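Q: Sequence in, structure out?
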Amino acid sequence: MYNARNVRPGFKYGFFAGLINTFLDQKILRGKAPWTIKHEKKDNETLRKKVNFKKITYPKPDNEITFDRLTSLSFSGTNHKEDQPCHLVLKNKNVPIEKNLELFDSPETRYCPANVYEVVKTESNHLKLQINFQNCLHCKTCDIKDPYQNIEWVPPEGGDGPNYSGM
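A: Exactly. Output:
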């Protein structure tokens, strides 16, 4: 990752400046540039408030080339023991509903590639964030992208997780 550190932030100066920077950095200097271009913002600071976007509707998966999230998840061979403690810890249980749902329309339900997070209604008709940690791919997106840094990813018990064949 160190060798590619300047590629994405180089585009903050424009498309052509980014192309020139990437060519110089990757083809000429082979990722060993003596400079490091910093990102303007941290990843969790780039989310837009829910009033600033419109809902994207994707075509339904055809189950030949494209698949739904849970079918794709089954290809990862993810394995967690059902009785182990959750390795995704909320620092404050109120933040997902009071802040993330209100301001960002629960981004954790969209940025997680494995449907780990979902907002559900409780028996008393209140909303709560349900964590289905058994689906976790250990990509740590939630640890990085959560707008309030409220989700702490800790290594799961026993080293369980994805079991990719051929690795």
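The chain has two domains: 1-40, 51-159.
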